[in-house]
Amino acid sequence: MRSRFAGFCILALPLWGTTASVGAVRPDTGYPPAAKRLVAHALIQKVAQLEVQYTVGASEYTATAPIQQNTESSLRALRLRLTQLRPDGYRREVTKAVRRALVTRIAAQEVEVALDNGNKFQQSKAETRLLSLRRHLAILPQTPYAEDQRLARL
User: Is 113 buried (19+), middle (13-18) or exposed (0-12) by CB count in 10 A?
Assistant: First the structure.
């Protein structure tokens, strides 16, 4: 990715007739700092989405099911990419995003359980999903932030 960005700068300079500082490009990732933050944010949101998807899938499928394995491999790849951007892999930010996504999904699942009175099979599946989501929320590492403590009580 670094070579593409550097190549773009080299090509763009003669066309636009401007001078740019190549020093703004970070040598570790090839992204300028603002772009690095945007990439990290997008990756963190995708990790949170896939964590919730994996948790819901765990209530319906075994760990060896292809859909679960695909989700798990995607999670591994995204986490690896985050560690390439920053050595700690944005752990605190990922945990906060996963917690928010789980709380949101738990609220939606509770509404689904409350509204689904007729079909016992569907209600049982929804309750199983809800239990799986709550278990995943319970095992997330606790962080000292007030917002995280408020979310952990839900």
Answer: middle
